[in-house]
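step: validate -> pass
step: tokenize input -> pass
step: predict -> running
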Amino acid sequence: MALSTAPAIGGLHHFAFTVRDLQASIAWYQNVFQAELVDGDLPHYGREWTGFARLLIEPRTGLAIGLHHNEKNQGEEFDEIRTGLDHIALRVEGREGLEAWADWLDALGVAHSGIQSKKEPFVFSTLVFRDPDNIQLECVALDV
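step: predict -> pass
step: emit ->
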């Protein structure tokens, strides 16, 4: 049977990054997101010989964050100009959500862009920050 529309997506389950220093990244994500580390290593499915991942769970939403150690990682900083991931955007509720994140990041000493508001191509505001590997994370509020 041919489908005329794509099946529904129920939301974001997890995102995963290959990192340079697994322990430093685990500590950063635990600190910034108050994420809880799950016991045990996860394999790179279909490429088990290349390394493993550790999984953290953000406790309020259940969002899983996978941090991958790869045996051949050469320690280069992430750069979104290469093919692959550009950034991850996390939706927050309104300007109050963005202000709460700005205050939280300030309290942790995590550098960020400050709240940036845009009207094109639609109305939104964003707060941009980066993890220890230079991976860009954004908090986004729509229609603010």
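step: describe -> The chain has a mean pLDDT of 92.
step: cleanup -> pass
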